[in-house]
Amino acid sequence: MPITIPKQLPAHATLEKENIFIMDTVRATTQDIRPLNIVIVNLMPEKERTETQLLRLLGNSPLQVLVTFLHTATHDSKTVSKSHLNQFYQTFHSIKHKRFDGMIITGAPVEMLAFEEVNYWEELKMIMEWSKTHVTSVLHICWAAQAALYYHYGIGKYALPAKCTGVFPHTISHSTVELIRGFDDEFLAPHSRYTGTSLADVQADSRLMVLAATTDDDPFIMISKDEKHIMLTGHFEYDFDTLAEEYDRDRTKGLNPAIPKNYFPDNNPKKTPLHRWRSHAHLLFSNWLNYYVYQETPYEWK
Predict the structure, then answer these.
(1) Cα(67)–Cα(37) distance, rounded to whole angstroms?
(2) How many angstroms separate the CA atoms of 3 and 61, rounded?
(3) Which residue pairs from 127-132 have beta carbons closer than 8 angstroms and sit at least 24 positions apart in sequence?
(4) 217 secondary structure, DSSP code
(5) Where is this site: Important for substrate specificity (predicted)?
(6) Rounded to whole angstroms, how far apart are CA atoms 143 and 120?
(7) Within 13 Å of residue 82, how many CA atoms lie on the same side as its CB?
(8) What is the CA radius of gyration of the chain?
(9) Cα–Cα distance between 221 and 212 in angstroms, integer?
(10) Is 7 among the annotated ligand-binding positions?
(11) Among 26, 112, 40, which residue's Cα sits nearest to residue 285?
């Protein structure tokens, strides 16, 4: 089944070329079907790229998905046009009276700031609090995962000695949990961040489970035992070349970045990296939509 998005959204043409089953909102209104309503709080600077990455993963499911994009009203984005935001995005104030089957909160390049120093932190706190009663399941990515751990469970983040960037092997635990059903015992996923989360702190909280961690004991996939919150400290949604573009960007800025680990063939930035996490990314998003959104959400919200 398709994802339903506006035909004018730039991601529409890209996904159509990739043979992702998409449907514009006009056609969707003619079908007598109850789609899953997913709201995406997009905090990333390059919003159009993040839209395409997430829609690609949401479209690989037998379920019809209707997507609403949200941007923060308390932060002016300098890397996306106001016309794009006005045409395709809403703010929390305009949707807070609604209920959604699922929500995704993306990462954001604000890791080095204390949470309280982020200019939209109070607004994000309102959204996370609202989600407790208005959303069936919430998927948090990278910085948003750390924000959720901090807001909901009081678990902080810490600065890393150097940026964590690259594609890392992970091992799973609690293999019977449906979110990672079908996962290999070891799998790869990309990370790109300056801060970390203590595995011991997460394991010490009886409300949480760590489902996958790096071989260096860095937690990656976490879930609350009530299955309301899912936290991913990495970037399953990344394209094969996203880390390469980040590396080139930082070199251009004169930041002397480290080469992403286990990413470029022969550790040579001139060689094209392979996409080695695609299958597990699709599997996780499909499992989330099926087991934590579709099977848990009421047909009609009351």
Answers:
(1) 6
(2) 9
(3) 127/41, 127/70, 127/92, 128/152, 130/92, 130/96, 131/103, 132/228
(4) S
(5) 192
(6) 13
(7) 3
(8) 19
(9) 5
(10) no
(11) 40
Give the SS3 label for residue 275: coil
- State how many domains the chain has: 1
At 21 the pLDDT is 55
Specify the 3-state DSSP secondary structure of 248.
Answer: helix
Q: Which residues are catalytic?
A: 142, 235, 237
- Tell me whether residue 171 is in a domain: no
Instruction: Say how far apart CA 302 and CA 295 lie, in whole Å.
Output: 17
Range of the domain at 63: 3-157+195-239+277-294
* Residue 181 marked in a binding site: no
- Whether 264 is in a domain gets the answer no
Dist. CA 157–CA 69, nearest whole Å: 27
In this prediction, residue 23 carries a pLDDT of 55
Residue 192 annotated as binding?
Answer: yes
CA–CA distance, 228 with 78 (Å, rounded to integer): 33
Q: What is the pLDDT of residue 278?
A: 97
Locate tokens 């305009």: which residue?
94
Task: Tell me the CATH number at 36.
Answer: 3.40.50.880
Question: What is the mean pLDDT, run by run of 10 residues, along the chain of 302 residues?
Answer: 70 70 52 80 93 92 88 85 88 96 96 96 98 97 98 97 96 95 97 96 98 94 97 97 96 94 98 98 96 80 55
